[in-house]
Write a structure and sequence with these properties.
Blueprint lengths: L9 E5 L4 H12 L3 E6 L17 E4 L6 H11 L3 E4 L6 H4 L3 H20 L6 E5 L25 H19 L4 E6 L2 E2 L9 H10 L4 E3 L5 E2 L2 E2 L1 H15 L8 E4 L5 E2 H11 L5 E3 L17 H7 L7 H18 L4 H15 L3
Parallel strand pairs: 1-2, 1-4, 2-3, 4-5, 5-6, 6-11, 7-10, 8-13
Antiparallel strand pairs: 9-12
Helix pairs in contact: 2-4, 4-5, 8-10
């Protein structure tokens, strides 16, 4: 898998206790990497990372704003690659914490890139930004990597700022930085607030209806392993010294689904799922239609989604149903199944 590039490699994962971070950490460990995590301690109960604890090597810090501490960790660990997933990412909350959002997302990335610039062991940096960096045109077609960037809410604006920071460091100081912009990521093990799938799982487990605020909102939903496979492909190319891959990449599914479509699939998998529609939106600047175009990743990186959208939703709901009803953690099973699909579909 990934041409065994990660066997024996040292990889630092920021945001290791978060949803994507915990999946990335576990997958990298399975691939034979020596992984350490940097970021705040788990904030949700349950927490996906802690389901595998304590066998992980990790550094518990509140944020990336202590440059001296961050630099010490990177200099001591001497990673070959850094996967930067840490961010203030709950959009609704960022409206109440705009200063903290910019401070953590932007200056945290600056600190990380500066520490990587000063450590010669680092050969590759992959940074996840967001599909929300594109200027909202409400187009019927997907945004491409060269489309206009713009952000009106604190989360999107901070991610746009990060894109400019990365461009500066890539062109002036450290060329081997790739930026990944993914669609709406779903999967088991996410217990963050104000996210659709976790809200469905929590409400169903507690025997109540989940409140839905934007049933017609359309998003490019994809299972967490889809963009992570893209991030790891980018890391592979950069570790191989292929500078042409140090640029911006979109990772999105085929098509899109509405919130209501998600609920219908969820009810097929977990019949206990119930919902009620509320009129008010979850936050200002709500975007009803969002699509991204992953043509470049498909053509050049040879990445492609392995799961159709309904299957991605089914995997996510099945994970939660098995967890809440049987106490099972299906993360390894999902990774193994996904790797089988990657091998089977390679070259097609």
């Amino acid at each position: 898998m990934f041409d065994d590039i990660y066997k024996g490699k040292k990889v630092l994962v920021t945001g290791y206790c978060g949803f994507k971070g915990s999946w990335a950490y576990h997958w990298l460990e399975r691939l034979g990497a020596e992984v350490t995590g940097y970021g705040h301690r788990p904030r949700t109960v349950p927490n996906h990372f802690k389901l595998f604890y304590p066998r992980y090597n990790h550094v518990e810090m509140e944020d990336l704003l202590d440059f001296d501490e961050l630099q010490d960790v990177i200099n001591c660990f001497r990673p070959d690659m850094v996967l930067h997933l840490a961010a203030k990412a709950i959009v609704a909350r960022t409206f109440h914490e705009p200063r903290e959002t910019f401070e953590n997302n932007v200056m945290g990335t600056v600190n990380l890139l500066e520490a990587c610039r000063l450590q010669q062991s680092v050969k590759a940096v992959v940074i996840a930004t967001s599909d929300k960096v594109y200027a909202n045109k409400e187009w019927d077609w997907g945004y491409r990597e060269n489309d206009e960037l713009d952000g009106l809410d604190p989360y999107s604006a901070s991610k746009v700022c990060i894109e400019h920071v990365i461009k500066c460091y890539r062109t002036q100081f450290f060329p081997m930085i790739a930026t990944a912009r993914a669609g709406n990521v779903i999967g088991g093990g996410d217990w963050a607030e104000k996210r659709l799938i976790p809200d469905i799982a929590r409400a169903t487990a507690e025997g109540r209806e989940v409140e839905i605020h934007t049933p017609k909102a359309t998003r490019p939903w994809q299972h967490v392993l889809e963009p992570l496979s893209g991030y790891l492909m980018l890391g592979q190319k950069l570790l191989e010294g292929k500078r042409e891959f140090a640029t911006n990449w979109n990772f999105g599914p085929d098509g899109e689904m509405t919130v209501l479509d998600i609920l219908k699939v969820a009810q097929k998998i977990w019949p206990k799922v119930k919902y009620v529609v509320k009129e008010e939106e979850t936050h200002p600047s709500m975007v009803e239609l969002l699509r991204i175009d992953s043509t470049e990743a498909r053509k050049v990186l040879k990445w492609k989604p392995q799961l159709d959208m309904e299957t991605a939703v089914s995997w996510a709901i099945q994970w939660y149903m098995n967890f809440y009803e049987d106490g099972k953690v299906d993360t390894d099973n999902d990774i193994e199944a996904y790797e089988c699909l990657m091998k089977m579909n390679k070259g097609r």
